Amino acid sequence: MAIGKLFIGRKVRELRAASNATQSQFAERIGISTSYLNQIENNQRPVSAAVLLALADKFQLDLAELSTGESDRLLSALAEALSDPLFDNYAPSLQELKLVTQNAPGLAHALITVHQAYRRNSEQLASMDDRLGRAVAVETTPYDEVRDFFHFVDNYLHDLDTEAERLAGELGLRDGSRHAVLADHLERAYGIRVVYQPMAENALRRFDAESRILTINPYAPAETRDFQAAVQIAQMHAAERIDTIARGAGFRTDEAVDVCRIGLHNYFAGALIMPYQSFLRAARELRHDIELLAARFGASLEQVCHRLSTLQRPGLKGVPIFFARIDRAGNITKRHSATKLQFARFGAACPLWNAHQAFEAPGRIIRQLAETPDGVRYLCLAIQVNKGLGGFRSQQPSYALALGCEVSYAEAFVYADDLNLTERSSFEPIGISCRICERVNCASRAVPPFRRRISVDPDRRETTPYRIQ
Fold first, then answer.
1. 409 pairs with which residues across the strands?
2. Which of the listed residues 66, 80, 294, 394 has the most CB atoms within 10 Å of its CB?
């Protein structure tokens, strides 16, 4: 693994604190001077390869965690916030942003939260019209709080994941027999009987604690029925663990804690149906063919794509991917990225991204080689899926699932086999969103970038009615 200059002062301080060592003791253990360690911890000097190896050998530092992780995601989110015209008189350098995210991540999170509140306030005021005198709520929604929580923990929760994997092994879950095993475990362990009965309002499941009956809608796809049974197991088996995680996340409202619990139940259910190590082996063996993975584990395409985004176990990581779910209006309803590609928090996604094409070709996996303005290249995949219970009168929401990886990992995906990964012309230029994209000559641009001025020539008209200066 090629590693450039790494400034990991905060990580080194955490390792030293965990070992209860002074700077001189810690420096002696890894064979460097105390002054060098002090400079490393304050991000004044990068760590050398020799120091990295010593940290990995003596303190179990996972080198794979250093290439991507929270710092990249936090850096992207902070850079987006500071691109707002509100900060027109301040344009931080990349080095300044790195110093803040590496040395004071709490401050970075706080600034992002304040900016989100400002954005919501501005958007609501712009649409208030005759209601400007009324109170405006600017609090972060519980849903947004929880989405950010999963995003910044790398979409991986070690205790829940390993416990779900242990339980899957104990139950001997096998493809084809999963339904019977899950239902039997619920009855034996918790006295819960599973019945299948249609429910109103497109409901998938309902649990009656008094009668100990779990009702699952029989019109839901088989993989959805299994998943809902697994969710019930999560609620019973991992209730204490889940409550500890949700209450320890520092949410500001009880509503956010409740939303987080739902997310954690779903996380445990996915890890139970697709146990980490067997799923990781299958992903490598099948070269991330999501349709074959879905068939092998009896899961939906969305469940498989989501699970691929959680393969971040220290020492046993999968290919770092990005994953998003987009509705027809362009709203990103799920998002996570273990790559340098980070999704915009405000505004629509780049129209050049192949995710939008998926709605035009239902059931087909759309491929794209893409390059972002920072020069990073990606293999992008997208497929349209429908959710719902079936039936003429049933609602059938449609989504595009988007996932991919940096092109250096593309050979691990079957979808890259006949693509030219070396020719620059094979890669289409895409961005994150128009308001923070610096590309000047883009015919698909919706709005000018925040950080750039525009000029308008009444005697000249191109694809856009302005030029970016």
1. none
2. 80
Q: How far apart (Å, rounded) are the C-alpha atoms in residues 238 and 236?
A: 6
Residues 121 and 239 in one domain: no
Alpha-carbon torsion (341, 346, 347, 348), positive or negative: positive
Q: What gap in Å lies between CA 116 and CA 122, rounded to an integer?
A: 10
Domain boundary among 242, 273, 304: 273
User: What does the pLDDT read at residue 159?
Assistant: 95
In-domain check, residue 208: yes
CB 136 within 8 A of CB 125: yes
Domain holding 61, by residue range, is: 9-67
Spell out the residues 6+ positions from residue 35 whose beta carbon is closer than 8 angstroms to its own.
none
Identify whether 305 is part of a domain. Answer: no
Q: What is the mean pLDDT of residues 10-37?
A: 86
Nearest to 402 by CA among 429, 384, 426: 384
101 pLDDT higher than 60: yes
Going from the C-alpha of 299 to that of each of 192, 269, 272, 320, the distances in angstroms are 23, 11, 11, 21
Sort strands 428-429 and 366-371 into parallel, antiparallel or unpaired: parallel
Do the beta carbons of residue 257 and residue 246 sit within 8 Å? yes
Q: What share of the chain is helix, strand, coil (3-state, %, to 5)?
A: 50, 15, 40
Output the pLDDT for position 162: 96
pTM over 0.85: no
Output the CA torsion sign for 120, 123, 128, 133.
Answer: positive
Same domain for 151 and 104: no
Encoded tokens for 429: 């230029």
Backbone Cα Rg of the chain = 24
Residues 63 and 117 in one domain: no
Which residue, 273, 292, 311, sits at the end of a domain? Answer: 273
What tokens were used for 465? 């009615």
| Maximum C-alpha span of the chain | 79
For range 60-83, the mean pLDDT: 66
